[in-house]
Design goal:
The complex is a heterodimer of chains A (about 220) and B (about 350). Chain A contains nine helices and no strands. Chain A is mainly α. Chain A has a single domain, classed as MetI-like (MetI-like fold), CATH 1.10.3720.10. In chain A, α1 crosses α8, α2 crosses α5 and α6 runs antiparallel to α7. The N and C termini of chain A lie far apart (about 50 Å). Helices cover about 35% and strands about 30% of the residues of chain B. Chain B is built from eleven helices and 14 strands. In chain B, the strands form three sheets. Chain B has a six-stranded mixed sheet, with helices on both faces. A four-stranded antiparallel sheet of chain B has the order 2-1-4-5, with helices on one face. Chain B has a four-stranded antiparallel sheet with strand order 12-13-11-14, with helices on both faces. In chain B, α10 packs across α11. Chain B starts with a strand and ends in a 13-residue tail after the last strand. The chains are: A mainly alpha (about 220), B alpha/beta (about 350). Chains A and B meet through α6 and α7 of A and α2, β6 and α3 of B.
């Protein structure tokens, strides 16, 4: 394969991958962030303990998380078709990516928010802070460095999931690795895509850590 | 102003019931500094959290400003809590906010206050606690004492009537403890804020409190003016708190020992030297824990008297003459009754 053609292929793959990963991560956070906070505050040690709600949400999250992504991808195809009208291509992969990663993100958010010092929460409660303000002005800002770190992990995990989208015909890097490298035995193409994926993961992780260090006011 | 009536708090788990507080009745007057002392596990922290309803008592009443806390709606309860601020052993500042923004926090959650007004007031409060130059620092950049000052400034931001101090100086070194206690006292005097101090250290009580309640296993063992409780502790637990075991050299059986109490009424003077010279006898100092604040002496001292009975008489007469409270202590820990108190 000509170098130019390969480069064009990779560039397209990179673009598709970024599109899929960033869109699905953003939407997954829109679902996962509130879900994680609700899981945290309804815990028996939380600010609004609610055993039933916590157990129900916890069960749904665990259930979705225990389904292997490839199975989920196939299993929710009817749902995907309803939402985006097709089951093939990058946009169609975004739906299972969201369904697969939102519960994971919810757990990450839950554990980050739980790290907030209970003494600090008690202190703001002693000032008569309403629960909603505790969430927006204390829990999220205090957990921010940990949340950002979690986002870096989430985004790299979703990147890993997105590679599987190759099986459903997304044009991402993962698909290129599968289609050219695996089906057509073009090892060189496969190696290049894998290398690209490694580089992307490194960048996301490093950027995440950098922002965490910059925002955290505890270590100075 | 704050009245606790037959307060109970029982923690129920599936297997057992733990009675953390039982039948606590106290009245805390406007403008006083009230101390609650007890060993760890006595229920002090639970008691203070029952006052602002961070913990709901399982029985009895908390009356604040003439209103039963239990009868308040959620909104009213939040408003009542703003009237009684709290400071903690662990300071509990928001770690991702600057010092200034920490002090702003309680005002930010009030409706209809402008940013500039809030900031101006927060700066004022930082000036009150002497930390205006640290406004833009983060809590992790401050020492423990400075963090507690920020916590105090933050607690004052809602113009509270009451300040609840939960072991506020227990994590601090003696010098810093001193400065925080003086600050609390100053706030009490200048702003008229009623203060409730929870501690396990008698020296905190003797330095700033007017009245004290001794808490033991969820019960009030005794309460009264600090001076009275200090000089005539009625219960074993109070005696233990006043003369902590392990800090005092063992009593030598058969020897008479006196515990001298300096409650700030005594002016700075070399009492023991004068005594030994005037009484022409020697005494052995077994234990001493005194502090000079504003050239007044606070604390206590345990002395062993000479065997000569006449000398003993002279010593006691001298102490009475100098108006120093004293109390005879014996080996088994019981104070002997009938000794002459000044």
């Amino acid at each position: 394969m000509e170098i130019l053609k390969l480069a064009q292929l990779m560039l397209d793959g990179l673009g598709e991958t970024m599109y899929m990963v960033l869109v699905s991560t953003s939407i997954a956070y829109v679902i996962g962030l509130p879900l994680g906070i609700v899981l945290c505050i309804t815990d028996k040690e939380g600010i609004r303990p609610n055993r039933v709600l916590n157990a129900v949400l916890g069960f749904i999250v665990n259930m979705l998380r225990s389904v292997p992504f490839l199975i989920l991808l196939v299993a929710i195809m009817p749902f995907t078709r309803k939402v985006v009208g097709t089951t093939i291509g990058s946009t169609a992969t975004i739906v299972p990516l969201i369904v697969g990663s939102a519960p994971f993100i919810a757990r990450m958010v839950e554990s980050s928010v739980k790290e907030v010092d209970s003494g600090v929460i008690e202190a703001v409660q002693s000032m008569g802070t309403p629960d909603f303000k505790i969430i927006t002005k204390v829990l999220i800002p205090e957990a921010k460095p940990s949340l950002i770190m979690g986002a870096a992990i989430a985004i790299t995990t979703i990147l890993g999931y997105s590679a599987l989208a190759g099986f459903t015909g997304g044009g991402c890097l993962g698909a290129i690795a599968v289609n050219y490298g695996y089906y057509r035995y073009k090892t060189d193409v496969m190696l290049v895509t894998v290398l690209l994926l490694v580089i992307i993961v490194q960048i996301f992780q490093e950027v995440g850590m950098y922002i965490t260090r910059k925002t955290d006011k505890r270590i100075k | 102003m704050i009245q606790l009536e037959h307060l109970n708090k029982t923690y129920t788990s599936e297997r057992s019931e733990v009675e953390a507080l039982s039948d606590i009745s106290l009245t805390i007057n406007d403008g006083e500094i009230f101390g609650i002392i007890g060993l760890s596990g006595a229920g002090k922290s639970t008691l203070v959290r029952c006052i602002n309803f961070l913990e709901r008592p399982t029985g009895g009443k908390v009356i604040f400003d003439g209103r039963d806390m239990a009868s308040l709606s959620h909104k009213e309860l939040l408003a009542a809590r703003r009237q009684m601020s709290m400071i903690f052993q662990g300071f509990n500042l928001l770690s991702q906010r600057t010092v200034l923004r920490n002090v702003c926090f309680p005002m930010e959650i009030e409706k209809g206050r402008s940013r500039s007004e809030i900031t101006a007031k927060a700066m004022d409060l930082l000036r009150t606690v002497g930390l205006e130059d640290k406004a833009d620092s983060y809590p992790s950049q401050l020492s423990g004492g400075q963090q507690q000052r920020v916590a105090i400034a933050r607690a004052l931001a809602t113009d509270p009537k009451v300040l609840l101090c939960d072991e506020a100086t227990s994590a601090l070194d003696p010098t810093t403890t001193q400065s925080i206690l003086s600050l609390i006292k100053r706030i009490n005097r200048e702003m008229g804020v009623t203060v409730i101090v929870i501690t396990h250290e008698m020296k905190v009580i003797e330095q700033i409190c007017d009245r004290v309640a001794v808490l033991d296993h969820g019960l009030i063992a005794e309460q009264g003016n600090v001076r009275d409780v200090f000089i005539h502790p009625k219960t074993e637990i109070s005696r233990n708190l006043i003369l902590p075991q392990g800090e005092v050299t063992e009593f030598i059986p058969g020897e008479r020992c006196l515990r001298l109490v300096f409650d700030g009424e005594t002016l700075l003077e070399p009492v023991i030297s004068t005594m030994t010279m005037e009484c022409k006898c020697k005494v052995n100092i077994l234990f001493a824990n005194t502090k000079i604040i504003d050239s007044r002496t606070y604390g206590q001292m345990l002395i062993q008297m000479p065997e000569d009975e006449l000398a003993q008489e002279r010593i006691m007469a001298f102490l009475e003459d100098k108006n120093i409270d004293f109390r005879e202590e014996t080996a088994d820990g019981n104070t002997e009754t009938g000794s002459a108190d000044a």
